[in-house]
Amino acid sequence: MATGFGFPLGVDASGAIRPDGEDAELRGKVVQVLFTAPGERVNQPEFGCGLFNLVFDPANTIMAAAVEFSVSSALTRWLGDLLVVGGVDVRSDDEALTVEVAYVRRKDLALQALRVHFR
Per-residue confidence of the chain (119 residues) as pLDDT tens digits? Predict the structure, then answer.
């Protein structure tokens, strides 16, 4: 069984550092995959999905499809043993981009969602 601190770390009332619950740990791992650009990690140069690189592309259906594919593929590749991607929804409104990821946690089949909003 793996041990360690989840991401992000939490601080309790006494000021001690503690890992957040399983939901926060898995959510943190999803955020790491989304916000890490391939090539950013020295020992895992393929890790991540490059979401930040895609958000500056023109807001159209091609960009939305690229983001959906990139996010879904990266989450399946790097976290496929922990979750099943249920869907990725990309919406563009003026200069804002919203990416919503729905996933099922494999451990207990709990449905989760994460929304990232870029402005």
Answer: 444 455 555 666 676 655 555 577 888 899 999 989 998 988 999 999 878 776 666 777 777 888 899 999 999 999 999 999 999 998 877 777 888 999 999 988 989 999 988 77
Strand order of the sheet with strand 96-105?
83-93, 96-105, 110-118
Q: Are 106 and 116 in contact (CB under 8 A)?
A: no
**Using CB atoms within 10 A of its CB, is residue 75 exposed (0-12), middle (13-18) or buried (19+)?**
buried
Angle, helices 22-35/61-79, rounded to nearest 10 degrees: 130
**How distant is the alpha carbon of residue 55 from its chain centre?**
15
